[in-house]
Amino acid sequence: MVEKLKIVGGNPLHGEVSISGAKNAVLKLMAAAILPQGESIIHNVPQLTDVNIMLRVIEELGVKTKYDKASKTVAIDATDITSITAKYELVSKMRASFIILGALVTRCKEAIVALPGGCAIGERRVDFHIKGLEALGADIKIENGYVHAKAQRLVGTDIYLDIPSVGATENLMLAAVLAEGATRIQNAAQEPEIVDLANFLNAMGADISGAGTSEIIINGVKQENLHPIEYTTIPDRIEAGTYMAAIIATKGKGIIKNVLPSHLTFFNSKLIKMGANIKLIEPTVLEVSCNQRLNSVNIVTQPYPGFPTDLQSLAMAMLTTADGVSIITESLYENRFMQVPELRRMGADIHQERNHALVRGVEKLAGTNVKASDLRAGASLIVAALMAEGKSEIEALHHIDRGYELFETKFANLGANIVRYNDESDTLANASLELNKENLNASV
């Protein structure tokens, strides 16, 4: 049975929404939790498909886990690791699980991790990960689709990344924690999730400085210096940006709770140029609103702290009905415009040429049937459907479930006419929505 979303758009969103823990942070914290012996506890863990996959990855290593969804807490006991293999069946479902390579090779001196394979949004190379680990002293062979890394002794060194890859930065940070001497990662990724990982590792007893800048220094420590900890994940900046985009695009007004505004500085500046109102109510609470047609703007995606590629599709959806012509340049991934054909089906006027998209604002979008191609494209179609007049149906919800916790319930609490259903009956879907509302209210 195929699950779908049914959305009747054209109405402003109003109300409050609380942002969940950051998917792109918590997955890496779960990998880092296998470094010390003993049980670490991670709070603010969202209920996502990707979280479940990462749990299965580390459980396959012999690590004991317990996920309490009610309290959004994961306990990870890595006292004993009985396997060094991360299988293709799991790694292929989520590229982020490749991060286990660095943690395994430094903790166990050996790791066998499947190459993650292709990605819908474009090429995401792992050679930066491999070359960095080799520079630290790992002996690496790639056979039958698996990376086999051995390192009886890792030694700190200077590593320069050709591009500021988030995954490579994180993998090398994990590997360098137990290396002898100092490791310096130059042209490192600067995302908030990198800072969160460094804070997590430092709380465990690691010695890392410079996270959040282009140069990170890791002074290696001994295994016995690491200890399990209790830690709370940062809020998800991309989820926050998604709900902000939806409220503003529907000319509504809402409160965004549990958000760190400093993580969205560039995105917020573009929203203000579009004509949105953004007000800081408390250090972690924003009020967003819009009561006019949005203005056109030009956007170029860049590594953090630039405009996030993960919010590019959301911005495009907003600009489909803006006044004037906008130009969006995607500088990071070659296939990140996969939402374009679906937005055109809704009446958007978008001309795409390679990594550039020219968006001419139309008066309104019209609801229709569309299909999500990936996580962020799927989120943009939800926003477009909320903007559009009439009914829309969205397929391939498994993409959206990877990164948005109880998203249809949160949108419903903002007043959206939205329901998940399947071919069996709409009644079952409404019952599921009510249950999700109960779960959401219980966890707030």
Report on this structure.
- This protein is α/β, with parallel strands linked by helices and 444 residues long.
- The protein has 2 domains: 4-20 and 235-443, Enolpyruvate transferase domain (UDP-n-acetylglucosamine1-carboxyvinyl-transferase, Chain); 23-232, UDP-n-acetylglucosamine1-carboxyvinyl-transferase, Chain (Alpha-beta prism).
- It has helices spanning 23-32, 49-59, 88-91, 100-108, 127-135, 166-176, 192-204, 237-249, 265-274, 312-319, 340-345, 375-387, 397-401, 407-413, 426-443; strands at residues 4-9, 14-18, 39-43, 64-68, 73-77, 85-86, 110-114, 139-143, 146-150, 158-160, 182-186, 207-209, 215-219, 230-232, 253-257, 277-282, 285-289, 299-300, 325-329, 349-353, 356-360, 369-371, 390-395, 417-421.
- Helix 8 (237-249) runs parallel beside helix 10 (312-319) and helix 8 (237-249) runs parallel beside helix 12.
- The radius of gyration is 22 Å and the shape is globular.
- 50% of the residues are buried.
